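Please, structure for the following, as tokens.
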Amino acid sequence: MATIESLLTSADLPDSPTPRLDAELLLAQALGKSRSYLHTWPERELDAPQLERYQASLARRQAGEPVAYILGRQGFWNLELEVAQHTLIPRPDTELLVETALALLPATPQRVLDLGTGSGAIALALAGERPGWQVMGVDRIAEAVLLAERNRIRLKLGNARFVESHWFSCLAGQRYQLIVSNPPYIRADDRHLAQGDVRFEPSSALVAGADGLDDIRLIIQQAPDYLDAGGWLLLEHGFDQADAVCELLRAHGFNAVESRRDLGGHQRISLGRLINE
């Protein structure tokens, strides 16, 4: 007898760090219910289509596929976003980028750019918190731009928009008070690329050359042409890249350069302010 409780108890997900949570999320989706429903009605039996849906999702998770891709959604900041396999899954560490950006500029009208927007997570979080800001998100992957736009429409955020652009390639003549980015920053030979959820994420959103800094170098080099005087550049990077990123920022005319730590204590973002002499 396939009851809610029996299925949750028997779920076999030995490689997951959160097996019970994964099983609950997948089962709730199969039932079209909330997780709280599972705890309220543990004795409820599944019908054949519901059981089939759950078992199919469980098999995908057992093969290592991230829960976010199976569900087609992921929470970020105070938003629930549609996600897909052509974009990176938004992660809690990236919320530090949003938190820092919100603290740097007032709520008065500002022009903000999110480079490599993916699902639109950063851009939409900023747009939702600052209705007076005009937030542009760009991505070189057309499917990512369409995905971010679907999220924007569903969240009814009229002060954000998304366009296809490889970094700054389609933004000639535009200037911003703030540029943020969570670019690829993993080394091409990093062993973690063959482990866990990242095996299923697009390598183009993860890998950036031999030392992981190819895209960060390009962004820092080109950003001064797209920032107003006094504008800020914020970058997420690897836990061991802060010194290198700060050195690059200083070398390209940025002042007030610093790094900030995520909840795990790692230096996760670096920032600088463009002061024209």
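The domain at 85-274 is CATH 3.40.50.150 (Rossmann fold). The first helix runs from residue 4 to 10.
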